[in-house]
Amino acid sequence: MLKVELYDTTLRDGAQTEGISYSAQDKVRIARRLDELGIHFIEAGWPANPKDREVFRIFKDKPLKGAALVAFGSTRRVGRKASQDMSLKSIIAAGTQAVTIFGKTWDLHVREVLRVSLDDNLKLIEDTVSYLVSKGKIAIYDCEHFFDGYKSNPEYALRCALTAIGAGASRIVFCDTNGGTVTSEMIRIIHQVAPQLKATLGIHAHNDLGLAIANSILAIENGITHVQGTFNGYGERCGNADLSSIIGILKAKLDIDCIPDKNLKELTKVSHFVSEVSNLRQQPNQPFVGACAFVHKGGVHIDAMLKNPKTYEHIDPAVVGNHRRLLVSELSGKMPIILKAKEFELDLDKKSPKTRKILSLLQDLEHKGYQFEAADASFELLIKRNLRQYKHFFDLESFRVVVEKKPDGRITSEAIIKVRVKGVQEHTAADGDGPVNALDNALRKSLKAFYPTLTKMHLSDFKVRVLDEKAGTAARVRVLIQSQDEADSWGTIGVSENIIEASWQALVDSVEYKLLKDKVS
Predict the structure, then answer these.
(1) What is the pLDDT of residue 362?
(2) What is the pLDDT of residues 430-478, one digit of tens each?
(3) 430, 450, 470: which is the final residue of a domain?
(4) What is the DSSP secondary-structure string of 481-500?
(5) CATH number where 410 lies
(6) How many separate domains does the chain show?
């Protein structure tokens, strides 16, 4: 069986995503989770950077169990020996066995960025790689802008790769750094250069054409055995090749070995964990691991799925640790209600009065503006409340939200809330970035002493839609809230003419769903 090396660069390339700012501990947590999944190489960053230096120090004390930790850097500075280059010294000091060096391959970059001759750039590559190899390092050489360089000057791009191999690099990685190479063009170039390079060959694709995953997979099918990417496709601009999709395709569709078979079912959890630590909302339509990857809404689809899941699913979602969802809407009829009830070990059928009651309630709520297809958690609570399979975790006595504009132009929000929890009245206030954030902070502040598990969740997305624009400021609004913890993501909904009331409904559902799924007593 063909085996492919997985090289994760979430902690370096992925950290260049707009909105991501990893702490040293964030990087350590992600690296350990990727190590457990079976990733072969985990690039932790630049040892010249103080934050990343701390990461390498932590792993010196407590190394990864199976993955090779990788230190990253560039070829030596112009006019300086490799042994005198401070960045290379920091790579040596990081103490990793494997190091990755990137160097210029495109003659445009050599002339206009480095501003040296083409021959001088080859000396940078040779000196840097040979120096690191002399220190006992496994050298991985990333040919930056390889495909653009090859299209511009094929002989020179190839010489860069050959120079790195001659200096001792064990792996040569073709980088589509600008992400602008069409798949057919990439494969043609790989076929031309691969026979001339006696080393393990790799691919590092960016997603500026939306082709990073396709380019990576086709490269593997054409002889590449080392693939680089990031979890969830994080990365600069349009991101990098998404390793969660690449792993899913290699293991579940192509029968290519890359992680242990038993670990594939952890793929969704790892993807969501990386999203959580990155403080970014999980993309719902992400292949294999997204919340909508195995969702079905249309009545025709649902009917077929009940007869044979293969009719509308390319794999069993359990293979990658995901699960099937049949959405409840006016399009789907009674079956999703019955199936959802079965998840709660409740027996309903199409002729049951309870089923008819819930369907009637659902239709009435949708007429008022509720839409449960994006709020599965609220629908689960709806069923349990109506079947009396539900307990209240707290009762609201009152809340008040104050929004104040300061003389300096700042706008502040404060929420004051009274709730009764387990017979105790809690009277709490909290500030927030806005009225809903303040209300969320106050609610969880009042409950955390009774339900500590709430400290593990946060709101990841907040959407408001006006349902009847013609009604102006009196229009009814629909609020959708997405919440996350380290293991899961769920949606809740609220509808009202008052945006704060609609937000409160969605907030309460979010908190109560968290407590319900954690089986809090």
Answers:
(1) 75
(2) 998 889 999 999 999 999 999 999 998 988 888 887 876 555 555 788 8
(3) 450
(4) EEEE-SS-EEEEEEEESSHH
(5) 3.30.160
(6) 2
